[in-house]
Amino acid sequence: MPRLVMKFGGTSVATLDRIRRAAKRVGVEVAKGYEVIVIVSAMSGKTNELVGWVRETSPLFDAREYDAVVSSGENVTAGLMALTLQEMDIPARSWQGWQVPVKTTSAHSSARIEAIPSDNLDAKFAEGMKVAVVAGFQGISPEGRITTLGRGGSDTTAVAFAAAFEAERCDIYTDVDGVYTTDPRISSKARKLDRIAFEEMLELASLGAKVLQTRSVELAMRYRVRLRVLSSFGEMSDEAGTLVCDEEDIVESNVISGVAYSRDEAKMTLTAVADQPGIAAAIFGPLADAGVNVDMIVQNISEEGRTDMTFSCPVDQVLRAEKAMNAAKDRGELDFHELIADENTCKVSVVGIGMRSHAGVASQMFKALSDEGINIKVITTSEIKISVLIDRKYMELAVQALHDVFGLEKAA
Ligand code: ASP
Ligand code: MG
Question: Among candidates 85, 83, 48, 93, which has minimal Cα distance to 69?
Answer without folding.
Answer: 48
